[in-house]
Design a protein that fits this description.
Layout lengths: L18 E6 L4 H12 L4 E5 L18 E6 L1 E6 L1 H13 L5 H5 L4 E5 L5 E5 L9 H8 L2 H16 L5 H5 L3 H14 L4 H25 L6 H16 L13 H11 L5 H9 L3 H16 L2
Parallel strand pairs: 1-2
Antiparallel strand pairs: 1-3, 3-4, 5-6
Helix pairs in contact: 1-2, 1-10, 1-12, 5-10, 7-8, 9-11
Length: 295
């Protein structure tokens, strides 16, 4: 593990004239998805670790969640929501005809009210790339491959991510170990860190139990995690290195990004030992590290 308070990466030659800055929590699975995407696609970017209490680093934004990707090409363009960020940036990398500003019009934010009366923001088309027919065919090869990628990107957001908290906060000891890591890599002040470690660990232990109930998880939440890992391995199959074939696609990067936040924790080690996901995970790690080292 890399125990740092705020990670800054030196920006090199911007892609398409864009300077990218990612506002994140290092241990957030949605942020980790975006980092995996940026590193794999060799997109130089600065990282700003956001203080999770005050969040002053994102005071410029009315959108108060992370990740936020700021793309600056004279005037800044703000991209919200991990799946929108990934879809929009992938479209930008492939499309030769659209600016990033134009691309963002395809991902409108729609405000709605959920069943509890709370206002929520939904993003339209978040799993779709806005490409023409020729670009789509060149990228995917077939409609089936395109729909497979979308299906598993949704699965990562709608199911896999909900298994993380109940597993890393499964017991008081695991909750404390998780918060010890969160505080060490996060942007906390000394008092905030001490408070977060002990009070946060206790709170998340109980929140983990509530999430377990909300998502109808088994009493032993590890079993849901193991089943999800093996479900993913089965989807990849025995004859492909990745879901995307010889190279990871956006679903590979999403699943990897979500699971990566458990690295170094008991839940991660037990998942590696009790499922068939380890070879795929190791291939993903090597591939992304090799790509990231090139920029």
């Amino acid at each position: 593990m890399n125990y740092v308070l705020a990670e800054e990466e030196e920006t090199q030659v911007p892609v398409g004239g864009l300077q990218l800055t990612l506002y994140q929590y290092k241990t957030c699975p949605f942020c980790s998805k975006v980092r995996a995407f940026l590193d794999y696609h060799q997109l130089p970017h600065d990282i700003v670790e956001v203080n999770p209490v005050m969040r002053k680093e994102i005071k410029f934004s009315t959108y108060r969640k992370v990740p936020i990707l700021l793309a600056n090409a004279g005037c800044p363009i703000q991209l919200n929501d991990s799946s929108v960020i990934i879809s929009a940036m992938k479209t930008f990398l492939i499309s030769k005809q659209k600016s990033l500003e134009e691309i963002m019009y395809y991902y409108p934010a729609i405000k709605a009210t959920d069943e509890k009366g709370k206002e929520v923001t939904e993003y339209q088309n978040r799993y779709w790339l806005m490409l023409d027919e020729q670009e789509t065919k060149q990228l995917y090869g077939s409609k089936e491959a395109q729909m497979e990628e979308i299906k598993w990107r949704r699965w990562a957001d709608d199911w896999l991510v909900h298994l993380i908290s109940p597993n890393v906060y499964r017991t008081p000891g695991e909750a404390l170990a998780s918060f010890d890591y969160i505080v060490r890599v996060g942007n906390f002040g000394p008092v905030e860190g001490l408070f977060a470690k002990y009070v946060g660990a206790a709170a998340m232990f109980f929140i983990g139990k509530r999430l377990k109930k909300r998502h109808n998880l088994q009493d032993d939440v590890r079993q849901d995690l193991y089943k999800a890992a093996d479900t993913w391995v089965k989807a990849v199959g025995k004859h492909r290195m990745f879901l995307g074939g010889s190279e990871p696609n956006l679903a590979d990067l999403a699943v990897y990004g979500v699971l990566r936040v458990m690295e170094g924790l008991k839940s991660f080690d037990e998942m590696m030992a009790n499922t068939k996901i380890k070879p795929w995970y190791q291939r993903m790690t090597s591939t992304i590290q090799e790509k990231a080292a090139l920029h």
